[in-house]
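user: Here is a favour to ask of a fellow structure person. I have my own habits and do not want them to colour yours. Could you put it straight underneath, so I can go through it closely?

assistant:
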Amino acid sequence: MKRLALASFAVLVACGGSKPPAEAPIEDHETKPAHHAGGGHKRGPSVSQELGEIDPQEANRAFQRIQGKLMACQKDGMRKVEPLAGDIKVFVRIGADGHARYAYFEESTLGDVETEKCMLDVIGRASWPQPRGGEAETRTSFSFESGDAREPSPWGPEKVQSALSKVDADLKKCTSGLTGSVKVTAYVEPDGKEGKVLAVGVATQNKEAAAKVECIADAVKGMKLPSPGSYLAKVTFQL
């Protein structure tokens, strides 16, 4: 089963819990005031922001309307990665006209950049409440489960450190000049006596770094890894 449940908002949004492709997901949203870089985020039911404000209930309904499409993205991704699942936290900047200006994943353990891009496209095309007083920002968290699919073997980040050092030059071409942390989640499949990266997902802390997600994913896919055994492994690590 798959669901997304709703919770309270403030002018940034946070959603919680969804489950495998089958039913509507469960979201938890928290909306809070838009802020300038470096500003803090406080959870709460009200929405007075530096740049603008959004009604929390309207923001909640906007996320409800796209639940099915987000689930469809995951379902498509599971054709390549059967146990595709994980938690995401998405940042959305909403323009004064009610359209998303940009969005990116601040956190994601989903592990597939194509699925993440599909979800961002859905969020970007969604109809958002028009902010009052200027642009606004929203954060939302979702959790996706893989249903009856066999769980991948969990790997610690130490499993990839040696291989990561060998693609360091390629990664630096992607990350040079960027600020904020970059977290990567990858699925590793058996490939003879070695392991091969099947899929990669990337989470960043700002839109500039988000523009380099595909470059980072391509570099990570070049890693030569130990075999995970007879089935997939999943690993999350920070660059």
Remarks:
- Confidence is low (pLDDT under 50) at residues 1-24, 32-49.
